[in-house]
Amino acid sequence: VDSYSAFFDNGRFGKTSLHSILQSADIDTIFVTGLALDYCVKYTALDGKFLGYDVYVVADATRGVDKATSEQAVTLMKQEGIHVIASMDLDGILFRVRAASSVVFLSPLVIVAWVSAFLVFL
């Protein structure tokens, strides 16, 4: 599947099994890290939000291809209600989120290699 997103192909014609896997595990919050911020991370985060997840992008655990497009991606994600955070903020956020939600960390690069290897349930 040609895809920047972990959830859908580039045209949103086909979907991966990730959404159904997360639903079956009662996951409602995702943290997205990896490469590239302005492509795979952005589209995974946007699609996760579209599907109803509470989405956090750990900005310093990502790297973009281009500074300008990365800044645009961060702006867009924030406009769409995605939380863009720093890794040093994870402890406090995870403490609050874990009390009310089921959480998973997603790294788009790992998804390409093997879908079940990147699911870390807290």
UniProtKB/TrEMBL annotation:
The keyword Metal-binding applies. Residues 13-87 form the Isochorismatase-like domain. Its EC number is 3.5.1.19. The chain crosses the membrane at residues 103-121. GO terms for molecular function: metal ion binding; nicotinamidase activity. The keyword GTP-binding does not apply. This is nicotinamidase. It comes from Plakobranchus ocellatus.
